[in-house]
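Render Reverse transcriptase domain-containing protein in 3D.
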Amino acid sequence: GLPDLIPTQMTLELANCAICTPDEIARDVFVPVGKFTFLADFVIVDYESDPRVPLILGRPFLRIARALINVHGEEMILRNGDEWLTLNMKHDTASYSNHPYRESVNLINIFNLSSEDCLKDLVSHKKSDNP
């Protein structure tokens, strides 16, 4: 399960310019990525999600994972101690079988629940103040 949720009074501007006021933060959530598991903090936001953008990795998570991003090579390397994981950022899946140690970042599933079930578990049953 999730750790205790911490109340917050922050205001966020999302990439689509929508303003939202999250109620809570989940700290130290285990995030499995390939062979690694990282601890990350999440701000719980109630907004209309775009299924094409399931999760945005923010700078704090990329720092925790000691990420190296090769923009021209279209790959990201996550490091944990002396081990690393190369994530192929290309959308061409035909090349994956030629690289057994590469994985793709198309979606990171944190919960094995539907969106509705996640919201029930993460957010209190009070009505949102968001428009």
